[in-house]
């Protein structure tokens, strides 16, 4: 008899796969293209080996999360835009152009999830965590009072996002002033459709952490800040 963890993990992976499959069904008809035609949006390689984030995130998790889920989003996206004007657009512009259109929900989900995941992968590094560089520390202290206060607020957003989604540190303008703020979004939603520019994200879909942490999402979030976050990349994004 399989353990409750095995059943739960299997159900989680199946649910994630169902979301990807549903996105494929919603994409609608696409224009066939030659087998040798390059993808409009090639999936970027991981910026580290599959085992590069161990022990915080296992190679097995990466093999599913990047090799299966992220790859499926990019595959569905490229099928949807092949032979259309969107194939020549920036991915961010594709996302913005179809956001909120129920008829384009499948395209939005796959485009946004492709972008979200690539942004997430680049926000981590082997041996990450630690003290952020002065540029980041100063910006976070100015916006939140301290680095720790920002980390706490972003961690809380990741821990409390109901079901699947993302926690974000993002920049934008409000009332004529530049701001840094913490946001959370459900499913494939992204701050770029809300007028904000993401700085950092934490993926809290179960497939991001369940094989390693089971239902202990707070432990995954803690490991993200202690061992994974790429503060140098955050500095480039500010």
TrEMBL record:
Q: Where does Mn(2+) bind?
A: 65, 117, 203, 207
Q: Which domain of life is it from?
A: Bacteria
InterPro entries referenced in this protein's UniProt entry, alphabetically: Mn/Fe_SOD, Mn/Fe_SOD_BS, Mn/Fe_SOD_C, Mn/Fe_SOD_N, Mn/Fe_SOD_N_sf, SOD_C_sf, TAT_signal
Q: Which reaction does it catalyse?
A: 2 superoxide + 2 H(+) = H2O2 + O2
Q: Which residues form the signal peptide?
A: 1-34
- As recorded in UniProt, its EC number(s) are 1.15.1.1
Instruction: Spell out the molecular function terms from Gene Ontology.
Output: iron-sulfur cluster binding; metal ion binding; superoxide dismutase activity
Q: What are the residue boundaries of the Manganese/iron superoxide dismutase C-terminal domain, all occurrences included?
A: 134-237
Gene3D superfamilies hit by this protein: Fe,Mn superoxide dismutase (SOD) domain, Iron/manganese superoxide dismutase, C-terminal domain
For whether the record's keyword set contains Signal, the answer is yes
> Short name of one Pfam family for this protein?
Sod_Fe_N
Keywords associated with the record: Iron, Iron-sulfur, Metal-binding, Oxidoreductase, Signal
What the entry lists under SUPFAM superfamilies is as follows: Fe,Mn superoxide dismutase (SOD), C-terminal domain, Fe,Mn superoxide dismutase (SOD), N-terminal domain
What residue stretches are annotated with the Manganese/iron superoxide dismutase N-terminal domain? 41-124
Spell out the PANTHER family in the cross-references.
SUPEROXIDE DISMUTASE, SUPEROXIDE DISMUTASE [FE] 2, CHLOROPLASTIC
Q: What does this chain do?
A: Destroys radicals which are normally produced within the cells and which are toxic to biological systems.
Q: Which family does it belong to?
A: Belongs to the iron/manganese superoxide dismutase family.
Protein's UniProt name: Superoxide dismutase
| Organism in which the protein naturally occurs | Nitratidesulfovibrio vulgaris (strain DSM 19637 / Miyazaki F) (Desulfovibrio vulgaris)
